[in-house]
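User: Sequence for Sodium/proline symporter below. Tokens please.
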Amino acid sequence: MQTATLLSLALYFILMIGIGLYAWRKSTADSEGYLLAGRNLPPSVAALSAGASDMSGWLLLGLPGALYATGLVEAWIGIGLFAGAVANWFIVAPRLREQTETRGNALTIPQFLANRFPERAVTLRVISAIVIVTFFTVYTAAGLVGGGKLFETAFAGMLPGMGMSDYMLGIVITAGIVLAYTMVGGFLAVSLTDFVQGIIMMIALVMMPLVVMFGSGGDAGGSISDVDVPGFLSLTEGLTGLGFISAVTWGLGYFGQPHIIVRFMAIDTVAKVARARTYGLSWMAVSLLGAIGMGLAGRAYADRNGLVVEDPETIFIVLSELLFHPLITGFLFAALLAAIMSTISSQLLVSSSSLTEDFYRLFLRKQASEREAVNVGRICVALVAIAAMFIASNPDSEVLGLVSNAWAGFGAAFGPLIILALTWQDKEGAGMTGAGAVAGLVTGAGVVGLWIAFGLNADFINGQGLYEIVPGFIASWIAIVVVSKATFKTGVTAASVQS
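Assistant: Structure tokens for Sodium/proline symporter:
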């Protein structure tokens, strides 16, 4: 039976690599092609690529696992994320698509910030790149943890390990396939694979809870109303004020996620952003509802059938093996890998673009040719992946925990910075300054790091933690406004607005 499952996965891997080869022939001749697919993505591809790279293995592992363990109250994270995504598509998407092209045809977020604030160009590019590479290495590690858990749970002892554990072998296989198509095909390969992966993910997330409730799982007692846990289906059971704030403020992170907002930069025209928004938010709504339903229905099925699930984050894997034909199980595992790989590939490419454009071409080889830059970008993809594999080598890592830290870091460091850089630009020159931008970037990242280091995300008031994105986002916003007002100089700021 596992042979059929492995066959399905093998076909999926071949499809991903085939897309990478197609993209290699279409759009890797220069940096704009390799890093942004020439700004020619159709709305549907850009939208599903943004969604798939956003959700990662968290959608099929972390969120269902949290709902399985605690109940419907964990859905507030999904609700907050959807609200944040709506605001991101309306506030950031059209402005970023237009301004990154008109302000020097910026290919990366650090480049855009440098063009927006030329008086602090080098400082912004360097600090932005450091934040991006640091947090994305951790974020990529979270995805690899998901790949390791899949192979450890589903194929224990079946694959030749070459001296590695099943968990580590899963990490190596996941990273290897992602590296293959990302290094070869660049942004177009990542976007096209994301599009396919997004469709696979949505189908799996709709199919799984329906089968558990109404198929063979339902016949065996999969109704979500039968969990013998008080308040399991309540949105408020055990919810505190700090808990509610920590959950819904996940949505603040959207404004500062480089691997998501870079998709806005690649949509072929500003006029098509609205269509992409419709596709993206529809996909997200369906997928989130499916993930929530899977966690709740999975717990009901497990309780009624005496099933012991040691790690709640593996409920999707467990149900895939129990309730479906091996070929379908392979498809479902491909959906999980799609969620993981779509995010990893996006993060690797954004990290690579920062290392190439904001370090290599800025300090080491200013006159580097386009071909050289593309090749250096490929090397950087591999280097970041190796670092992430090292972080992910601990099998006790939790996907949701790693993702939450990296998500907060980006949201606090870049969220207020991106929003204000796009919107706070008075025609007379008043508004955000380069010094304010630097202050917000450093303050946001620093507050998040300190909040985690002192354990305040776990114990802030009376044993209750507060998600680190909240103080980080607020502190960053205040720093930008205060420092900008203190350092405003009409001539300098007006020049940056008109550039």
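The chain has 20 helices and no strands.
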